[in-house]
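Kindly review both lines to help learners:
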Amino acid sequence: TTTARDLLASEGYDRQFGARPLKRVIQQRIQNGLANRLLAGEFTEGATLVVDGRADGFVFSSSDDTQARSDSSLASGLPSAD
């Protein structure tokens, strides 16, 4: 979503290093979060996944979810990209 993209931009940009930290943010916050949920069986095969941004981090949902699942543990446990 646009909100997720804005959150990625704010966390993945550093004044000194430009967008270099973006790859790390994507890996730690998006790829790892989705991988953990896939391994836990939270998403069904063939579902369309949506990544949204919220104040507490990224939220992952699928087309068959009735409620988005927040990953506040990832949001609070990672070092800043500053």
Summary: The helical segments are 2-12, 22-39, 72-77.
